[in-house]
Design a protein that fits this description.
The protein has about 450 residues and is α/β, with parallel strands linked by helices. The chain contains 15 helices and 16 strands. The strands form 3 sheets. An 8-stranded mixed β-sheet has the order 3-4-2-1-5-6-9-10, sandwiched between helices. A 6-stranded parallel β-sheet has the order 13-12-11-14-15-16, with helices on both faces. A two-stranded antiparallel sheet has the order 7-8. The termini are close together.
């Protein structure tokens, strides 16, 4: 089978969960004998604005070669910086360029991992040619230009009517110069600073920043534009029931398969673990931000620490405002075995809608119990009694959950993981995608 993926590009220029998932799936498909290539949004030229699909030959990834096709003059990639120029993000490319490319490459399946940078004419051209289209929900970009559906420390309450979109998208980086230098180290730091401020514990509602240049009606039209793209897709692969619920709240029921995801570093390393009531070691692998639930977690543990001090919280960023917190440097996948050997329970307390959440799968693959919230998509994979799902996000239930943690209870969860937990490997996932989405 000839499979064309569309994503944001190859590492090391593109990173993150979306890129890793796409690369790992492509490599596994190559190992299974498929012909696999990646189409990605590339250079935006200042003078010649014509859409071109340029054959970049092959990209070496591990010991395999992946076909590489660059779209010259794609739609700008906004990441999570928002969109203010609606016309810029809904302009159409040269349909003939896409039609000619598809006639030449002739894929059996096109697997879309994002709509960022993608002209609608690419999808419509593929649809007209009868090429099967699959879309994986890595984020909420078709619904929210900021990707997150998260605002002012909570899930956006007026997302349906887009009332807050003009203000929310006013502080962005979308100048022509920015689009040219967006991958420079300076601009990457600017993007990170903006993201940390936007998703941090407090926000300033973006007051007095830049003039608002689009209305809520514009953002409703933008959502309709992405909805039209979704409706051309043959099947949506929701990576969790959380993704499915959110997308269907906005777009209704579309052809879909709910298939939880994995990656190539997941192996079945489950083992029996021992625990002590003298010290319960809690591990948090998220960022220091409210959307990932860090401050929600800290508030619960602050209350608990005032009553008993038989626990510690390990984090992987610098934080010195609580005596029970132990800070560590950022980690790599190679360090996970050591990290989980020093962990009694993983907590993933996200307050935003998280489409999946690899850390839960990673913890379970090492036999480590997990505590998460109902907003985290990876809750779908937790076997009965292998972890705890917190449904009340007010904070009291999270506090009570940690207050009731005991060595005996953790041993029971570890036993449930050993007896009942399914650990999905990338090879199994690739076969499932093939069977349920590609045919």
């Amino acid at each position: 089978m000839r499979i064309l993926h569309y994503s944001l590009g190859f590492p090391p220029f593109r990173t993150g969960g979306l890129t890793k998932f796409c690369m790992d799936l492509m490599l596994e498909q190559i190992r299974e004998g498929h012909d696999v290539s990646l189409l990605w949004p590339g250079e935006i030229r200042l003078i010649n604005k014509k859409t071109i699909v340029k054959n970049r030959g092959f990209e070496q990834v591990d010991q395999y070669q992946i076909g590489s096709f660059e779209v010259i003059n794609p739609i700008p990639v906004s990441y999570d910086e928002g969109i203010s120029d609606i016309a810029l993000f809904t302009k159409d490319g040269d349909k003939k360029a896409y039609s000619d490319f598809l006639d030449t490459y002739r894929p059996d399946v096109i697997h879309l991992h994002t709509f960022m940078g993608l002209h609608r004419s690419f999808i419509s051209s593929a649809k007209e040619k009868g090429i099967r289209l699959v879309f994986t929900t890595h984020d909420f970009f078709p619904i929210c230009p900021k990707v997150t559906l998260f605002r002012n420390g909570t899930i956006c309450s007026d997302a349906f009517g887009c009332e807050s979109c003009p203000m929310c998208n006013s502080k962005i980086l979308q100048s022509p110069i920015y689009r040219t230098v967006k991958d420079s180290s300076v601009v990457k730091k600017m993007r990170k600073k903006h993201r940390d401020e936007y998703l941090g514990e407090e926000t300033d509602n973006h007051k007095n920043e830049v003039p608002i240049v689009a209305s809520k009606e514009d953002y409703l039209l933008l959502r309709s534009y992405y909805e039209s793209m979704l409706k051309m897709v043959d099947v949506i692969q929701y990576n969790s029931t959380v993704s499915k619920k959110v997308y269907e709240n906005f777009f209704g029921r579309l052809p879909n398969q709910v298939i939880t995801i994995t990656h190539s570093d997941i192996k079945d390393r489950r083992k029996k673990r021992s625990y002590s009531d003298d010290l319960i070691r809690i591990r948090y692998l998220g960022s220091c931000s409210s959307h990932k639930g860090f401050f929600y977690l800290k508030n619960a543990l602050d209350k608990l620490y005032s009553e008993k001090q038989n626990f510690c919280l390990d984090v992987h960023f610098e934080y010195k405002e609580a005596v029970y917190i132990q800070s560590h440097e950022r980690y790599s996948y190679d360090e996970l075995e050591h990290i989980f050997d020093e962990t009694d329970v993983l907590v993933a307390p996200s307050l935003w809608y998280e489409t999946f959440g690899y850390t839960i799968l990673e913890a379970l693959s090492f036999g480590v119990p997990v505590i998460t919230t109902c907003n985290v998509g990876a809750k779908d994979i937790i076997a009965e009694n292998a972890g705890i799902i917190v449904n009340d996000l007010s904070g009291e239930e999270l506090y009570e959950t940690f207050s009731g943690l005991t060595a005996a209870g953790l041993e029971e969860m570890n036993h449930a993981i050993l007896e009942k937990q399914t650990i999905t490997l990338i090879s199994e996932f690739a076969r499932t995608i093939d069977e349920r989405c590609y045919h």
